[in-house]
Amino acid sequence: MPTDIIMPQLGESIAEGTVVKWLIPTGGRVEKDQSLLEVETDKVALEIPSPAAGYLAEVLVKEGETVPVGTLIARLEEVKPDGVVNKVAGVILRHMEPPEGGRDYYSPAVRQLAKEKGVDLAQVTGTGAGGRVTRKDVLDYLANREAARPPSIRVAAAPSVAEEILPFTPMRKTIAERMVKSRQTSAHVVTFFEADFSAIARFREGKNLTYLPFVIHAVTRTIKEVPILNSSWGETGIVIKKDIHLGVAVALEDGLLVPVVRHADRKGLTQLAKEVTDLAERARTKKLNPEEVQGGTFTITNHGGFGSLFSTPIIHQPQIAIMGVGAVQKRPVVINDAIAIRPMCYLSLSFDHRVIDGATADQFMSKVKAYIEQSQWEQYL
User: Fold this and answer.
1) What distance lies between CA 81 and its chain's CA centroid?
2) How far lies 176's CA from each of 109, 179, 181, 283, in Å?
3) Fold of 3-92
4) Please, what sign has the CA dihedral across residues 351, 355, 356, 357?
5) Active site residue ranges
6) pLDDT, tens digit, 9 for 90 and up, residues 279-318
7) Cβ atoms within 10 A of the Cβ of 258, count?
8) Considering the entire predicted model, what is its pTM?
9) Domain spanning 186-380: which CATH class is it, in words?
10) CA torsion through residues 276, 282, 285, 291, sign
11) What is 103-160's CATH topology?
12) Dihedral sign computed on CA atoms, order 106, 108, 114, 115
């Protein structure tokens, strides 16, 4: 029995995905749960595991192509195929008739590139499956068009070129769209607090713990007392989530990913530290499972890891708040009318003013600050 491989949905409200790379050659053997291909979409670049063991008998979507979620992209067979016919570059070619009007015959990535470069796609010869026009075809067309220009025109134009075009990756385009949409959707307001990390700094001595698990613990304890921060805007009212699934933003080379620590309120500092480290490492190596980037109810972004002190992060929809954690730095502060040196940190809370007001946000942050500054941490290991 063949096994169909479909384009997975890698995030809430995601409509399409891009095949970045096939990790198994056509006709090659793949084991169940072994990485089969790399897919990118909605701030997610993940290696997708095979749902079954078998041989990759047929690849229907080439690398670089973008297709809707649920599209059949490949098939596995239990028995190794006898041979591969009509095969180019490891991809089985099928005759594809362009739909009426031709517009949908081009992938979104090809149409976007053609729009940016002013290319009439009807003039481009396709070399993809069934004569489909690929990004490489468009780029080759541009190169040939440039080469065909008279030398005098090329020489005159060269000195004025003082820019470089960095093509958008699917991740960068999606981040841009989501961030703009979030700003257009939520009424963003930001409040700032400063917390003394002295007690945490003392407790961390000799322990392999960063500051982040302590912040997560303080936030989850506070959410239990101010549960409206763990909510979303609904059509008929505010939807308060009963489970606390905390998203932790991870910076990647070409974007940002937000893996989720599920039921973060039920875990001690040591377990939180292990899970955050594991999720961050697998995010950077594209080893996360799709469900590990879905279902977050509140997000923390630790921008202080790069030395940043203040930040006004954009809310991760459909959540209603995101907390920024700045760098922990020793600063002079006034304690009991005396100047002292303490490890201090600025915390920011970007919140949706449609859902909560400033008083609720400040109440929340006051409690987070109090939990961070407490001295009894041993019981939460």
Assistant:
1) 37
2) 15, 5, 8, 20
3) OB fold (Dihydrolipoamide Acetyltransferase, E2P) (2.40.50)
4) positive
5) 353, 357
6) 999 999 888 888 899 999 999 999 999 999 999 999 999 9
7) 24
8) 0.69
9) alpha beta
10) negative
11) Dihydrolipoamide Transferase (4.10.320)
12) positive
